[in-house]
């Protein structure tokens, strides 16, 4: 089926990662950075060149496109989704992608910062990549496989289906989103306009992985109000809000309830930003748990820490603001089990072993699932994401393309 097909995912990926699309968590605009549109415009042009007539970029920075059905069957409309932005954690400016052909297990020293070394001993997934072609950045930036790999793979799927009309499938929707990395990826998605029944994000890691569960997530903002006075005459008057913030942060558990000390199914309380002056200081936290009811327990625990830190300063006060971010998509997918079952079969048809995983994070699919579009997450091949050692293999990308082509066929066959 794919013997004579020249995959384009890697070639597209190498171009896409050179377009800076880093999102900004401090921005109040949408998308948070205008430069994300630069890649989205390229994608629209390429989709139109394939013959996908309705491809367009809307006012919010979303790319919508439709691959028409080529079957007489009534098949549910399936959407494939990926995000164009890269994480604020590491620079995405002037990314220089490098292809390391025929990897043999050696250390890969990244040339623009030779202290950045990709070692098999530290990244054991490399053992599965012997003989494959590894793509990295050059050492001073992230690579951007999260999620430009997913973007490139969906684009290659579209290219394949538009060239191979004998492959039967129903109507397929393509959605590329901005601002996933800052938690706003589907804020302005028009699901009625999208017109899909079920969806899949391509935003996962190891080849064969399939994720039907995410964290449930809240944000907490703690605003501490101190008492300001001239520092020369502050005795028994000043209450420094920054010092109270320091006590709160120091009181957080060191050996539990933190990203540094948890794995698997354990959630955490994580401070992500502190800003302020002596009079007023704000701490922003993210709260994560696989069980939604576990969020409230963690939020109550954190509030107790804040109350204890503020209580000893009778003139100080605080605000405690909880904001819902997303919920565990498994709650929705457990009611729509065939969406996951078909993905499992597609992975197996691609010759891979299925690896069911839970995401210690979230995807656009988390919110889409609760908006009415059940949406598990498929592997895209990305590894060591958000870091200068990020890598992906050409072969894993091609397997992702094979998988989603099998997937659309399965939906048609079973309809």
Note down, in words, how this protein is organized:
This protein has about 425 residues and is an alpha+beta fold. The chain is built from 10 helices and 17 strands. The protein has helices at about 10-15, 35-50, 145-165, 190-195, 240-250, 290-310, 330-335, 335-350, 365-370, 395-415; strands at about 55, 65, 80-85, 100, 110, 115-120, 135, 170-175, 200-205, 210-215, 215-225, 270-275, 280-290, 315-325, 355-360, 375-380, 390-395. The strands form 4 sheets. An 8-stranded mixed β-sheet has the order 1-2-8-3-9-16-10-15, with helices on both faces. A hairpin with a 7-residue loop joins strand 5 and strand 6 (about 115-120).
